[in-house]
């Protein structure tokens, strides 16, 4: 469609909004309520423009011609139009520069400022505030309002994470719409009406995993991130665009640091991955980085005590010890969120030490790289039949949002010259959702089930059986019996419907996480099922770079050299990065026997207690590097300027060790690692775009899955993935205030049977690891099952725990 | 020991009424029932407590916040129990010009309560409201569902005295500027 914006003529697709036409033409209008990825509602009346269009004669069907110019006559709307809710028409003329429009903008700014406190000098948003900028650009500069402004609460804690200043709010409704449209939980609304209205909630502290996003797009300083309140002004922060390493999605984030501290994390845009959203775990989980007890210098154990030292001394110390050991006797363990570059460094070091004892952890039984057609996150968002196996809302929260995007049936918007459309007219408030396309299966009732058309709570550990039954039916090798379906908490109709839906869909996707990856039979079955019904696969690995490290083969040369074996005595020296392996009592025993234990970590823990050398490690926010997310997308990491003393990543460790050995190892720096990766991948990672690079799928023929006779997956305690990183929770004060200590969730009936009450603290040993948890009764958990958050050292699995072994910890001096 | 009173769900023994209300709307528009449900509670309990808001949210599968948003938008729903006689003074332009402010001030003085309050005995509640659609016969006082039009000081006193005797006076309706009785107004409006 031809549109004319002021003097610019352009050709745009039908359905584009007038505001996007204006921006596409390179002009500007102020707006407060429009927001990318959300419905346009025309609430703020700021984007007013004079809009007209030619008209056709009803009888002749010809354009009505202006007699003076001989051109089609432009009929203007009688009033100025909100350009965000107006769709373009053929030959539309949009005027944003006339005096009429300017006067309207002046007037609207004046109205908006009537009740705005103008406390910009003490407002955190000052300098980055849309209202401030727009008032400066489009306002008259003075107000005629001489009466008292409205006074409301200025420090209202919506939750421990978000503070609301009700005076500053300009009622644009972005936050209210966000909760209904994006996570689909309407936990925020306008209370009262007219001049009295304010943003409020009846829910206790905003129960959603995605609350922090409202602080990003609030156009004024009304909604603020409590972790960064009064910490700095926007222009004082160093903004670093990087990727979040809290789960396998790898959302784009902006790290705002000031004087060596991370003050806040904001969502950045990646149209392929997370749109504009991140979860609360990723946003608020950064406080540990600046904890006082952070390790900042290398430490060497001398006379039984760890004493401060330098990297050179530490490297020399390690080298001396290693020289006494033979080949194959040193083990190297990386955490699964180490970067590709660190993986290269670890491999080079292992090669230098002639050892095959190299592994990353947590690593589950099955491969995180699906054999079959991989799904991207945009495939998920455009899918017309989705089967979810597991609790994605906790495991990879953004996948949850992308699924909800698919339920709206609106494909991700096409990019305009100015980026994502500001007003996508296909989106509406309270859109009907096509819930029927979504099936969620999980061993307990999970959050996403509220949004699913079909839900299935199967007994924990029966993943293989469930997938095998589906596969059999899909291959026409046998009907699903009533009895088998019953055992799986389902019915033959439900499972057949699911199969019909998957095989009948154009773009079906199967998403599976830790519960399936924990058993290779289940993983094989899901891949065979996907092949049978023509679905794409999205596997959620345990950590941010599980995919990349597996693809790079940071793996042992033999099964007898896996992490578990290394921690049971297969190595005489160990270099452990980022994992508190000594949590496991049996491993701790083996670690004590080692000739050399080198621990590369950011904080002291049980393993550093046993270490001969402790080396300070960079956190995820300080590293430069690359990770590969669950889709197989290479994503860049950029270091934020954080005061971390002499901390180094694993590349740095390898550099110092190599120097003392007298060699220059591959991966001694990020640059050196990238040189090697460039040869291997034909991809220059230093030139990776912000949106990353999707690796071409390597399709391998999946071998036909044979059913095993018996399944040994049994247990009563399920270790579940969670959005919150529990290993750092005690140092993340704000998150801890909201989510509390790790919870042991169980059905109220079981709790009564064990005489356990909400809030009871229990201590118990789980496979050698001492765990402590707070009892939380929950109807979401089936009778006979307990749920406990997994740890990096204790990934998702189904285990046995005698309920009688739950020992109530003394509530010591709580009341005193 | 503190005795905790359990709140019985309002619609527990009103299954038929509930079904009738829910049946008015198609399944995808279930949330539309929020208004009639709120009104049932308001009419019978003279206010809608937070527990009732949560109950309605539960019935309709909404968050309580959403129900509260609707409820607080309308001045007909109240968080606190209303008095037996709910005095509503129109304070929009026509009534305001015709002296509703003085009427309000007088009521405040007489009753000892201000806008939004209920007196100690639970007899009177006073509220300023927006246009009651009776501008031609301003100022208007609405008591519960009854209009008293073209109010003067003496009529105010009369109405208040009757209410204090626990009698709700006949509606005071006026048409065309002549004081007419309720019956006559009825006849006129029918003809």
Overview of the structural elements:
The complex is a heterodimer of chains A (816) and B (191). Chain A has 816 residues and is α/β, with parallel strands linked by helices. Among the domains of chain A are: 2-97, Ubiquitin-like (UB roll), CATH 3.10.20; 299-363 and 547-683, Rossmann fold (3-Layer(aba) Sandwich), CATH 3.40.50; 717-808, Barwin-like endoglucanases (Beta Barrel). Helices cover 26% and strands 19% of the residues of chain A. In chain A, strands 16-15-26-25-24-17-18 form a seven-stranded mixed sheet, with helices on both faces. In chain A, strands 35-30-34-31-33-32-36 form a seven-stranded mixed sheet. In chain A, strands 1, 2, 3, 4, 5 and 6 form a six-stranded mixed sheet that branches. In chain A, a hairpin with a 6-residue loop joins strand 9 and strand 10. Chain A is globular, with a radius of gyration of 29 Å. Chain A starts with a strand and ends in an 8-residue tail after the last strand. With 191 residues, chain B is an alpha+beta fold. In chain B, helix 2 (34-45) runs antiparallel to helix 3 and helix 3 crosses helix 4. The N and C termini of chain B lie far apart (66 Å). Chain A binds chain B through residues 185-193, 200-203, 432, and chain B through 28, 50, 53-54, 62-66, 68-69, 72-73.
């Amino acid at each position: 469609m031809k549109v004319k914006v002021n003097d610019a003529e352009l050709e745009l697709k039908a359905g584009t909004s007038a505001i996007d036409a204006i921006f596409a033409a390179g002009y500007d209008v102020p707006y407060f309520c429009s927001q990318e990825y959300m419905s346009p509602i025309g609430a703020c009346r700021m984007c007013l423009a004079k809009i007209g269009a030619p008209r056709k004669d009803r009888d002749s069907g010809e354009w009505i011609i202006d007699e003076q110019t001989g051109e089609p006559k432009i009929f203007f709307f009688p009033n100025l139009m909100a350009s965000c809710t107006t769709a373009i028409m053929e030959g539309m003329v949009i005027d944003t520069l006339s005096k009429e429009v300017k006067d309207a903008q002046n007037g609207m700014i004046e109205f908006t400022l009537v009740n705005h406190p103008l406390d910009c000098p003490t407002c955190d948003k000052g300098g980055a505030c849309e209202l401030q900028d727009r008032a400066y650009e489009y306002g008259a500069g003075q107000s005629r309002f001489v009466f008292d402004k409205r006074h409301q609460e200025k420090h209202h804690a919506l939750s421990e994470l978000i503070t609301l200043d009700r005076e500053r709010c300009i009622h644009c409704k972005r936050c209210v719409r966000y909760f209904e449209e994006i996570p689909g939980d309407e936990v925020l609304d306008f209370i009262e009406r007219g001049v009295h209205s304010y943003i409020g909630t009846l829910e206790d502290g905003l129960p959603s995993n995605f609350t922090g996003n409202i602080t990003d797009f609030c156009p004024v300083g009304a909604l603020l991130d409590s972790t960064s309140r009064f910490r700095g002004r926007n222009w004082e922060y160093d903004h670093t665009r990087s990727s979040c390493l809290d789960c396998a999605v790898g959302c784009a984030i902006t790290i705002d640091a000031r004087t060596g501290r991370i003050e806040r994390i904001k969502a950045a845009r990646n149209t392929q991955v997370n749109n504009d959203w991140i979860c609360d775990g990723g946003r608020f989980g950064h406080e540990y980085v600046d904890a006082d007890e952070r390790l900042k210098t290398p430490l060497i154990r001398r006379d039984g005590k760890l004493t401060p030292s330098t990297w050179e001394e530490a490297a020399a110390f390690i080298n001396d010890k290693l020289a006494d050991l033979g080949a194959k006797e040193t083990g190297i363990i990386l955490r699964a969120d180490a970067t590709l570059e660190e993986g290269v460094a670890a491999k080079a070091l292992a090669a230098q030490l002639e050892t095959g004892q190299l592994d990353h952890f947590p690593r589950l039984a099955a491969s995180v790289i699906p054999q079959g057609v991989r799904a991207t996150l945009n495939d998920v968002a455009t899918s017309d039949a989705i089967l979810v196996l597991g609790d994605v809302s906790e495991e990879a929260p953004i996948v949850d949002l992308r699924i909800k995007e698919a339920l709206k049936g609106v494909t991700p918007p096409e990019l305009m010259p100015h980026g994502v459309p500001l007003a996508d007219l296909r989106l509406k408030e309270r859109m009907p959702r096509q819930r029927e396309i979504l099936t969620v299966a999980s061993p307990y009732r999970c959050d996403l089930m509220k949004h699913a058309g079909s839900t299935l709570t199967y007994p924990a550990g029966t993943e293989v059986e469930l997938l095998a039954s589906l596969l059999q039916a899909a291959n026409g090798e046998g009907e699903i019996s009533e009895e088998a379906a019953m055992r799986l908490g389902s019915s033959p109709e439900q499972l057949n419907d699911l199969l019909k839906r998957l095989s009948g869909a154009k773009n079906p996707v199967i998403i599976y996480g830790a519960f399936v990856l924990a058993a290779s039979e289940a993983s094989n079955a899901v891949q065979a099922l996907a092949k049978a019904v023509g679905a794409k696969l999205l596997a959620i690995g345990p950590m941010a770079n599980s995919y990349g490290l597996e693809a790079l083969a940071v793996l042992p040369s033999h099964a007898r050299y896996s992490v578990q074996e290394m921690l049971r005595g297969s190595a005489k020296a160990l270099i452990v990065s980022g994992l508190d392996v000594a949590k496991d009592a049996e491993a701790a025993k083996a670690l004590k026997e080692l000739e050399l234990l080198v621990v590369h970590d950011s904080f002291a823990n049980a393993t550093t207690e046993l270490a001969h050398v402790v080396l300070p490690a960079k956190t995820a926010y300080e590293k430069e590097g690359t990770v590969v997310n669950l889709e197989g997308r290479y994503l860049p990491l950029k270091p934020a300027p954080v005061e971390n003393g002499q901390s180094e990543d694993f590349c740095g460790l390898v550099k110092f060790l190599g120097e003392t050995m007298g060699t220059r190892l591959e991966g001694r720096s990020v640059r050196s690692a990238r040189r090697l990766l460039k040869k291997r991948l034909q991809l220059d990672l230093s030139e990776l775009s912000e949106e990353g690079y999707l690796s071409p799928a390597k399709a391998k023929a999946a071998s036909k899955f044979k059913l095993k006779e018996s399944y040994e997956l049994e247990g009563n305690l399920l270790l579940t993935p969670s959005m919150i990183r529990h290993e750092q929770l005690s140092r993340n004060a704000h998150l801890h205030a909201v989510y509390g200590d790790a919870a042991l969730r169980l059905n109220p009936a079981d709790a009564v049977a064990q005489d356990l009450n909400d809030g009871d603290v229990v201590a118990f040993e789980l496979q050698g690891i001492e765990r402590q948890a707070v009892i939380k009764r929950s109807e979401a958990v089936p009778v006979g099952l307990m749920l406990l958050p997994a740890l990096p050292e204790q990934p998702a699995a189904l285990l046995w725990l005698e309920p009688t072994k739950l020992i109530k910890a003394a509530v010591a001096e709580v009341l005193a | 020991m503190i005795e905790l009173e359990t709140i019985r769900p309002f619609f527990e023994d009103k299954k038929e009424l509930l079904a009738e209300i829910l049946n008015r709307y198609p399944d995808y528009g279930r949330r539309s029932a929020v208004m009639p449900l709120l009104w049932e509670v308001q009419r019978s309990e003279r206010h809608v407590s937070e527990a009732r808001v949560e109950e309605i949210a539960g019935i309709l599968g909404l968050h309580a916040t959403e129900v509260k948003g609707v409820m607080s938008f309308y001045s007909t729903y109240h968080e606190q129990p209303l008095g037996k006689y709910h005095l509503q003074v129109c304070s929009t332009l026509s009534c305001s010009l015709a002296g509703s402010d003085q009427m309000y001030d007088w009521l405040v003085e007489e009753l000892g309560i201000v806008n939004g309050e209920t007196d100690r005995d639970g007899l009177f509640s006073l509220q300023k409201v927006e246009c009651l659609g009776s501008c031609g016969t301003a100022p208007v006082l609405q008591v519960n569902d009854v209009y008293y039009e073209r109010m003067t000081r003496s009529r105010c006193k009369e109405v208040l005295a009757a209410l204090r005797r626990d009698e709700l006076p006949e509606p005071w309706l006026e048409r065309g500027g002549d004081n007419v009785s309720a019956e006559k107004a009825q006849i006129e409006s029918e003809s």
